[in-house]
Every structure is written in C-alpha cells, then in structure tokens.
Amino acid sequence: MAAARGLTVDGIRDERLQGGGGGGVVGALRPRVENTRPGDGAQRYSYNNIFFALVFPEKYNPQQQKKQVSDFLVRPFFDTSVSSNITTQLGGHAYMPCRVKQLGNKSVSWIRRRDSHILTIDWLLFIADDRFRIFLVEPTCTWTLQIKYVQPRDAGIYECQINTSPKMSHLVQLNVVVPKIEIMGESDIHVMEGSSVSLKCVIRQSVRDPDYIFWYQNNKRVLDYGKGAKVISSERLDANTMVATLTINNAVLHDSGNYTCQPSNLDSASAYLHVLNGEHPAAIQRGHSSGTQIPIRLLGPLSAVLGLSSSHSTRAALLTTAFAVDLAVRTLYSMIV
C-alpha cells in the first residue's frame, strides 16, 4: 500500500493511502489502520486507543475529506471532572458549572429538565425569574448557572447543552436541603421571678451558617447590650447542627411573652415564657397581639389560694396547683372573649 498525494487539513499533513476503496488519515498523527473493507468507502483507524472511522464516497472529494477530518478533530466535549451533583441550603445560592472544551463557534444552553424550559443561550436569559443568572469564566470556558435564594421547587436536573449535530448534553443534579428549626423543651416555659432561663434554638440539617439569627419578644427584636440581662450566643455542634441560645438572667415580669428564633432566609420557631412572681402567675394572655390580659377579678381566687399561708413550703406546694389553675383560667377566658 503506497502513499500518494498529500493534502493539508488545518495545517496538519494528510496522506491518502491507495487501495481499499480510498480514504484519508492525518499523517502527522499516524493513526493505525484497524480494518479496511474494500468497496464500503470507509477506513477505520485507532489513535490513543480511540477507534473511529472516516467514511468517504467512492469518488475522492478532497473538500469533503477535509471537513470530516476537521470536524472530528475540533468537536466540543464536556470536562466531566467538574461536579455534577450540587447541594445547597434553602434560601442560599446555587452554582451549577458546565465546562466545555473546544467550543469553537457553538452555543451553550441551560435547560430545566422538569418542564423543558430554556433558561439561557450563551449570555441571554429566557426566564422572567430574576433569581437566575449566567456567568462565563473565559480561561476555562465554564458556563455557570446561578440560582439565588433557592427554594424547594428549584431542586431537580438541569441540562447543559451544546448545539452540535446531534446535540451534546451534560446533566447536573441540584439538591435543596431544608433545615428544621425548633426551640428545645415545651412550647410553654414557666420560671420564677429572679431566676435565669435559657431558650435554645436548634437548627438541624444546616449545611451552612445563617447570615444572622435574630430573637424577638412579642415581635420586638431582642438586643444584647452586653449588660448581662439578656445574652445571645450561637455555636455549631456538628456539620449539620447549630444552636442559638438566648439567656435571660434575673427574669422579671415584663420578660414574659412570646419568644421567636428567626434565622436568615429560614423558617422561625417560637415558645412562650411565663415569669411567676411567687404570688400569682404573670397576667399574660397568649394569642392576642393587642396585649389583652386576663382580668384581675378572675385571678383573685388564685391569689387568695397562694396567700392562705405564710409558710414557704406550703406556698411552694400550692404553686404546682397554681400552674394548672392558671391554664384552666386562661382557657376559660379565651372561650369567653
């Protein structure tokens, strides 16, 4: 089999081999002929253990041969070393990268698979939701789709597509983690006046720390002035759990109320604190933002019960009964109003 005339494909020497129906290979790469079937107009080659076939018509066409070899050499492909499984937290920002090699003059699109919605084509956005943005890192040709303030509905598969023929696709899975928030203990907390109490807000399945965690008492933000009366702190227990603590030292009656833990971009959790003065429960009525209290005339019998004896032990024993009476009175009052 003798080498005949040569032609150049994008600057690479191509030598046509005679026989076997004709065909062309890139001489500079020196691929090995794997199989030649006379009359089928094709020759099959391998290069670096990659097998391919160049198919030419029986009649030799240099321009068509040049195009086929050139298309094979410069065909785009995806860099699969980039992560294709992305996990982000509810309310956070998601970044889904798509790195393409040898893109040439082709276009890159992002498509949401669940509804086949075209999100982007190159730099252009095709969705009205302004949470979506597209970024290009030119040195690595990485097209990154960003979704801000991620919601549970954003979870799913996203397709990065190149407009070759046939089209080429790279799939990215987006997982959205929804943290669980609760204040430890009962929803109703009772303490004696002058004592200290700590409210612990536990955030589970938290893959990143919130930007902030605010505490509110009756919808008014609680501030830590560093004077020791109310102290706010937070700590991470493990990779998925953190705790925010509100400590109230030397509790007084006006510390009673509804306390809410509110992390940034997450749901909130609440508990109700009752501060008792040793004579009768603080007159607090839950569920009324106007601050309506239980009328004193309804608390009179309860105060009388606690005042029957000056003995500390007797009054302490009666205090347990007072909690139950307090709950019954407030329930009765809520039915009346």
Record the SSE blueprint.
Elements: E1 3-9, E2 12-17, E3 24-26, E4 32-36, E5 42-47, E6 50-55, H1 62-73, E7 77-78, E8 85-89, E9 94-101, E10 108-112, E11 117-121, E12 124-125, E13 132-137, E14 142-147, E15 156-162, E16 168-177, E17 180-183, E18 188-192, E19 197-204, E20 213-217, E21 220-221, E22 230-238, E23 241-248, E24 257-263, E25 269-276, H2 296-306, H3 312-336
Helix pairs in contact: 2-3
Strand content: 35-45%
* Regions with little confidence, pLDDT below 50 for 5+ residues: 1-42, 44-56, 282-317
Distance between the termini: 105 Å
SS elements, strand count:
25
Helix content: 10-25%
- Rg from Cα: 37 Å
Order of helices and strands: EEEEEEHEEEEEEEEEEEEEEEEEEEHH
How would you describe what is shown here?
The chain has 337 residues and is mainly beta. The protein has three helices and 25 strands. Strands 8-16-15-10-11-12 form a six-stranded mixed beta sheet, with no helix packed on it. Strands 18-25-24-20-21 form a five-stranded mixed beta sheet, with no helix packed on it. A hairpin with a 5-residue loop joins strand 24 (257-263) and strand 25. Helix 2 (296-306) packs antiparallel against helix 3. The longest helix has 25 residues, at 312-336. The radius of gyration is 37 Å and the shape is rod-shaped. The termini are far apart.
